[in-house]
Write a structure and sequence with these properties.
A hairpin with a 5-residue loop joins strand 4 and strand 5. The protein is an alpha+beta fold and about 230 residues long. It folds into two domains: about 90 residues, Protein of unknown function (DUF541), domain 1 (Translation Initiation Factor IF3); about 90 residues, Protein of unknown function (DUF541), domain 2 (Alpha-Beta Plaits), CATH 3.30.70.2970. The protein is elongated. Helices cover about 35% and strands about 40% of the residues. The strands form three sheets. Strands 2, 3, 4, 5, 6 and 8 form a six-stranded antiparallel beta sheet that branches.
Length: about 230
């Protein structure tokens, strides 16, 4: 029994100390590089909603459809392409008001009517028209502008630029480390990458001044990439 244990130990020791295993374990280096690219957005996607509360669903639908049609026409007049204007199906649900009881509890019983609504999503390629579009949309019966999503038309190029920067960062780290230990850097054995928008979506805050059109705060888009590389060591 002891002889078998000793034999197994010797075989394991020989395997771990063999040149093939030692070379596989010792002659690689793993590094991770990061790259971040910042860019100003040149496109916007607006999410709006037109709704109406009415005792009659038919009358509410007519009101909403007329206002949506006017908003669509306004968008076309402002140079928005027809394929960049999307409207949702009709949404209808019962609208009730809350009655506050003397004891502080709430009683939802009073029916106000039916809320009929449609959503409009439009893509704006000229940001200089954004304030005018927001102002006109509100004047034409848009009840709410739920959010403004900013993005770049160069998203693909930004991803590649970030990956290039991350690759350079990984290479510099590998070069630095092998020099510290008196080695030379060989070929890459394995490469993994990932990228993402650090601020996605990027929103603008809609603000209305006295007598003035709404405006927005435009920020920047940051694309972050990570590259993981396994190099040979010579």
């Amino acid at each position: 029994m002891n002889y078998q244990k000793i034999l197994c130990f010797l075989l394991l020791f020989i395997f771990l100390c063999s040149p093939a295993v030692a070379e596989e374990v010792a002659k690689v280096i793993k590094v991770s590089g990061t790259g971040v690219i910042s860019s100003k957005p040149d496109r916007a996607r607006i999410h709006m909603q037109v709704s109406n509360v009415n005792k009659s669903i038919v009358a509410g639908k007519k009101f909403v459809d007329e206002n949506v049609s006017q908003v669509q026409k306004m968008l076309l007049d402002q140079g928005v392409k027809p394929e960049h204007i999307k409207t949702s199906g009709l949404s209808v649900y019962e609208e009730r008001s809350e009655l506050m009881n003397r004891d502080g509890s709430r009683n939802v019983t009073k029916q106000e009517g039916y809320r009929v609504s449609r959503a409009i999503v439009s893509q704006i390629e000229d940001l200089t028209r954004l304030d005018v579009i927001l102002d006109n949309a509100l004047n034409l019966g848009t009840n709410s502008i739920q959010n403004i999503e900013f993005y770049s038309s160069r998203s693909t190029e930004l991803n590649f630029e970030a990956m290039e920067k991350a690759s350079e960062d990984a290479r510099k780290k590998a070069d630095f480390l092998v020099k510290q230990f008196g080695c030379k850097l060989g070929k890459a054995q394995q490469i993994e990458y990932d990228y993402r928008d650090k601020d996605r979506p990027l929103y603008g805050a809609v603000m209305g001044g006295k007598g003035g059109p709404p405006s927005f705060l435009q920020g920047t888009i940051e694309v972050a990439a990570t590259v993981n590389v396994v190099y040979q060591i010579e």
